Amino acid sequence: MFKHLIRAAALLALASSFTSAALAAEKTVVIGYQTDIEPSKIAQAEGLYEKASGYKIDWRKFTNGADVIAAMASGDVQVGFTGSSPLAAGVTRGLPLETFFIAAEIGTAEALVVRNGSNITKPADLIGKKVAVPFVSTTHYSLLAALKHWGIPANKVTILNLAPPEIAAAWQRGDIDAAYIWDPALGKIAKTGKVLITSADVRKWGSPTFLAWVARKDFAQAHPDFLVSFAKVTGVQNAAYRKDGATWNADTLQVKEIARISGSDPADLPALLQGTTFPLLGEQTTPALLGGGTAKALANTSAFLKEQKRVDAVLPDYAPTVTASNVTQAEGK
After folding, report:
1. Rounded to an integer, what is the distance from CA 234 to the centroid of its chain?
2. pLDDT at residue 75 above 60?
3. Cys-Cys link to 326, which of 54, 143, 227, 265 (CB 3.0-4.6 A)?
4. Is there a contact between 308 and 92 (Cβ–Cβ < 8 Å)?
């Protein structure tokens, strides 16, 4: 009898451990992030997402949005930070993703920098030069849109597909004449170059770009509580920046935390932050963003990518790839 009791207890303990492991797995999420400069890096640095949601988060760093989208397509990443161009390409190809929070409307945080001594003083001087950019990124989209705005055929410029770290290295070697990129590579190359245009200029010309938090649809359906909590925390960070960000400098704790996560120079961050709009929680559901504008922007971006032969076709409607439900619930809490 005693042996039977021991065996039963062992089986019960084993079953309990399996249950605990299953529950732990359910409360774990893999998030793909990038080095872009934005306030949510503060919440990441301070562990606020974990504290608010009760989930264990495996933060994985990526150098560009295309790689984030690829990881989400494989199922390795459930929530990701990406730009509008790789996002548009991904959902156009049928990936089961939905945008649930607009992190930033890109401005001066992304720029086309020309090397000192490259003899590039005006857009027409780009013809015949080597310009590096990560393909299917927001900067790639902005570069192509800028060339179209200037009336410069893209095939008149040698456009090289390089990841941000590769751009910084190629710049250091003198292999490229210009690059369209974001921080920390942007801050590094700008020290020996000149900003020709920023994405704030491209936005004025009718080709805006944005950064978004995106979730796999299967994860979103199974764990809406996490996305609601995530949206709430991100909204709080954006609101804090909107309130006090103008006073931040290289020595401000928040700037140092953003720099630690992004790998950027704190001295570069205040100006980059001020050149970008970080929508508040209450602004997310407006017609300009998740209330319709985001779907329209994805459609326009996809049409441009098709024109550039980056995607084969466009969807009839991008609204199903965008949801405002998580931010709506977050607003009510």
Report:
1. 13
2. yes
3. 227
4. no
